[in-house]
Amino acid sequence: MAKDYRQVKARIRTLEAEAERLRRQELRGLLVEMRRKIREYDILPEQLFGPDLSDFVRYRHPETGQTWNGKGRPPNWIRGKNRELFYVE
After folding, report:
1. Is 51 helix (H, G, I), strand (E, B) or coil?
2. Cα 79 from chain centroid?
3. Are the C-beta atoms of 88 and 57 separated by less than 8 Å?
4. CA distances from 34 to 30, 37, 67 (A)
């Protein structure tokens, strides 16, 4: 049976709608199970998702207290200077 473009596109839309319905149906059960396990094992958000890298302080300006985690562009107060002098242990 020969199919034209519109028939194929209609079939794709039908399949995408069915896939989304199945995804939502399976997701409900998955979320229930995940919530049960989180409660059972007392899992904390940071254990589940890991720490926020922006919270890590690697460098601190001794006078102003400004901090930098070492990611991205260095701030003006450390740019071009020996970073070991500002390193936080």
Report:
1. coil
2. 29
3. yes
4. 6, 5, 36
